[in-house]
């Protein structure tokens, strides 16, 4: 090694003609970037996601997008996901209800950003996972904004990309492929996966709510994989049609996607109706009196 020369006044250290200061800057840059990313995320919803209050009890995990958990789940922007009011339909002395849905995520980015791995770390035999994705899966597969889209359908097609947002090489799969992985992973942990089709948007056509292709694909995957399935898209669409456009309008906090608290409560009641309709109703033993009275 070349002789080490130190010059305290200049505050730098020379190593073989290269200042140690510059050397350390280069060496520590990746670590600084990682710390910077962590610091940036401390105020984001994913950094404050709840964990089971009583790990000894079974846990019902909710995963999905902003229609399940909007923002921090406190209605700060007047928008609510159905996951928050859903908790009241369960007896908290018998089961934990943990809403780990994150706004803006698709079935793809919930996995690739590590959120599903964090759920898996908490998951144990006897737990339940209710999953609802689809609202964001139709976005761009590769762009500099969100890069969250999935290939349409449920096949095994793939698309290799150099992700413009993450700067990483990535193999993108179909919507169905990501659902299959979530189901398989949950089963491997001894948990019960329950697939929900995405809640419908408030889009009317000829007096009817427009149904979603992702609902059909979710149903097909759940059936093929032997997972429980709740057709929220259809259950809620029929409810909206019964109410009519005038009564449905105040259930939404924006043009057609995110609900007010009243809308989220209606959707949560529809989730319970769907769960009650499952063969054997696996979650019925954990329902609260509110769920028992709900129709």
The CATH architecture name of the largest domain reads 3-Layer(aba) Sandwich
Number of helices: 10
Average predicted confidence as pLDDT:
87
CATH superfamily of the largest domain: SGNH hydrolase
Query: What is the CATH first-level class name of the largest domain?
Result: Alpha Beta
Proportion of residues in β-strands: 15-25%
What structural keywords apply?
disordered N terminus; Rossmann fold; globular; 10 helices; 295 residues; 5-stranded parallel beta sheet; alpha/beta
Overall description:
- The protein is α/β, with parallel strands linked by helices and 295 residues long.
- It has two domains: 1-42, no CATH class; 48-293, 3-Layer(aba) Sandwich (Rossmann fold).
- 35% of the residues lie in helices and 15% in strands.
- It is built from ten helices and twelve strands.
- The protein has a five-stranded parallel β-sheet, with helices on both faces. It has a three-stranded antiparallel β-sheet with strand order 1-2-3.
- Strand 4, helix 2 and strand 5 (96-99) form a beta-alpha-beta unit.
- Helix 5 packs parallel to helix 6 (213-225).
- It is globular.
- The N and C termini lie far apart (79 Å).
Task: Give me the secondary-structure topology.
Elements: E1 4-7, E2 12-15, E3 18-19, H1 20-41, E4 59-64, H2 83-86, E5 96-99, H3 107-112, H4 115-122, E6 128-132, E7 159-162, E8 169-172, H5 175-188, E9 192-196, E10 204-205, E11 208-209, H6 213-225, E12 228-230, H7 232-243, H8 245-248, H9 261-276, H10 289-293
Parallel strand pairs: 4-5, 4-6, 6-9, 9-12
Antiparallel strand pairs: 1-2, 2-3, 7-8, 10-11
Helix pairs in contact: 5-6
């Amino acid at each position: 090694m070349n002789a080490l020369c130190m010059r305290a006044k200049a505050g730098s250290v020379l190593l073989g003609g290269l200042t140690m200061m510059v050397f350390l800057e280069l060496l520590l840059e990746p670590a600084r970037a990682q710390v910077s990313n962590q610091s940036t995320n401390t105020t984001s919803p994913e950094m404050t996601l709840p964990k089971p209050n009583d790990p000894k009890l079974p846990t019902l995990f909710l995963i999905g997008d902003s229609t399940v958990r909007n923002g921090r789940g406190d209605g700060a922007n007047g928008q609510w996901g159905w996951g928050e009011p859903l908790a009241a339909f369960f007896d908290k002395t018998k089961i934990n209800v943990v809403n780990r849905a994150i706004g803006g995520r698709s079935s793809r980015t919930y996995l690739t950003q590590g959120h599903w791995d964090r759920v898996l770390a908490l998951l144990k035999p006897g737990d339940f996972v209710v999953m609802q994705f689809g609202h964001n899966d139709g976005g761009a597969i590769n762009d500099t904004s969100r890069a969250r889209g999935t290939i349409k359908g449920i096949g095994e097609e793939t698309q290799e990309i150099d992700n413009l947002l993450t700067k990483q090489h990535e193999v993108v799969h179909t919507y169905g492929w990501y659902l299959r992985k979530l189901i398989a992973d949950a089963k491997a942990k001894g948990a019960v996966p329950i697939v929900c089709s995405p809640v419908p948007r408030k889009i009317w056509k000829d007096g009817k709510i427009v149904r979603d292709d992702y609902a059909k694909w979710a149903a097909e995957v759940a059936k093929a994989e032997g997972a429980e399935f709740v057709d929220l898209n259809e259950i809620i669409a029929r409810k909206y049609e019964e109410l009519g456009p005038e009564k449905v309008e105040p259930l939404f906090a924006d043009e057609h996607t995110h609900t007010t608290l009243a809308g989220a409560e209606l959707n949560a009641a529809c989730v319970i109706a769907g769960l009650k309709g499952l063969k054997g109703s696996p979650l019925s033993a954990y329902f609260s009196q509110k769920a028992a009275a709900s129709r």
